[in-house]
């Protein structure tokens, strides 16, 4: 990631410039895609998982942007989010974290309780914009931590339907984030 190109976009994004925010997310998506594909390919995981992680990381960056300290470097903050999303994904999919090198990344800035409340409100609003089937699948798999099989059983769906709904739901959320005007 190129700090000199990304940080000005983040600062403009924080000032409410929607075009800068879209450009930031677009540039970050390429970097995140390379990162996740490389990490997951080493342990035989799919490119689809990498794409899901890209969308999750972009959502987290969007929702947590208010926690970024402009006096600090941007790339360690982004890398920390990417790292924690990877760890969570491996934990929920029972992947072997010992097979994926995740060290060498700065820790995430601590977040206060009020920031967490603001994020969940933002996420709730975004989730409300999804069709029910997608919203249910994303909520169960990505937020509640259920497996695809557990979600399929619980909501009487096929596993492939759950996977498609989650993938399309994450894609739709990313599109909503990209279109959203910043306050």
TrEMBL record:
Residues 122-173 form the RNA polymerase sigma factor 70 region 4 type domain. InterPro entries: RNA_pol_sigma-70-like, RNA_pol_sigma-70_dom, RNA_pol_sigma70_r2, RNA_pol_sigma70_r4_t2, RNA_pol_sigma_r2, RNA_pol_sigma_r3/r4-like, WH-like_DNA-bd_sf. SUPFAM superfamilies: Sigma2 domain of RNA polymerase sigma factors, Sigma3 and sigma4 domains of RNA polymerase sigma factors. GO terms for molecular function: DNA binding; sigma factor activity. One of its GO terms (biological process) is DNA-templated transcription initiation. Coiled coil: none annotated. Belongs to the sigma-70 factor family. ECF subfamily. NCBIfam families: PRK12539.1, sigma70-ECF. This is RNA polymerase, sigma subunit, ECF family. It comes from Rhodopseudomonas pseudopalustris.
